[in-house]
Design a protein that fits this description.
By secondary structure, the protein is mainly α. It contains seven helices and three strands. Helix content is 57%, strand content 6%. The chain starts with a helix and ends in a 6-residue tail after the last helix.
Length: 174
């Protein structure tokens, strides 16, 4: 697993360098001069564009509770050292995140006494995650509407990619 992470990070940085070179060449061609050496600012610009594109943009645009569910799924997968997460564990982690950070219940604008969420209140954020292809239900009869406490889900977006988008949104727990 560690080798895959290191290899993935190396591939990502090579991709960043390639895109930075392409950016510098494009700017030089537009200006009609030779390309300048690539600066850290151009690397930063490429990294920002990559972070805001594709799946990271989907994660950044999620509702607060969908982001908290995704964060809870990453935490459960990390804790269990298994890619699949059990819905009951995710609900428990989500509830503790909400209590710790005083997050109001869905549909309310203020805290009416922190109570645990039941699974029915979180089906809509779960369905959003599934519809966007960020999370996939696994197992027999799988589907986001069948989210019993023993249902299993797999987060499709690698944790590093999701982490960056969640950290940009200042989501607690990561």
């Amino acid at each position: 697993k560690r080798v895959a992470n290191v290899s993935g990070d190396a591939r990502r940085m090579l991709d960043v360098c390639r895109r930075a070179v392409e950016l510098a060449e494009h700017r030089a061609a537009v200006a009609g001069c030779d390309a300048d050496p690539i600066s850290i600012l151009e690397i930063r610009e490429v990294l920002d564009k990559m972070a805001r594109s594709g799946r990271a943009a989907h994660v950044a645009a999620l509702s607060l509770h969908a982001k908290l569910l995704l964060s809870s799924m990453y935490a459960c997968a990390r804790r269990n050292e298994v890619a699949e997460v059990v819905w009951g564990d995710v609900l428990s982690h989500h509830a503790s995140l909400c209590r710790t950070h005083s997050v109001a219940r869905l549909g309310t604008t203020h805290d009416t006494g922190i109570q645990d969420y039941n699974e029915h209140e979180l089906l809509r954020p779960l369905a959003t995650l599934c519809a966007l292809g960020i999370v996939v239900a696994v197992g027999a009869g799988a589907g986001s509407a069948r989210a019993g406490p023993h249902a299993r889900y797999l987060v499709v977006i690698p944790e590093e990619e999701g982490k960056h988008a969640l950290q940009d949104a200042r989501i607690p727990g990561l």
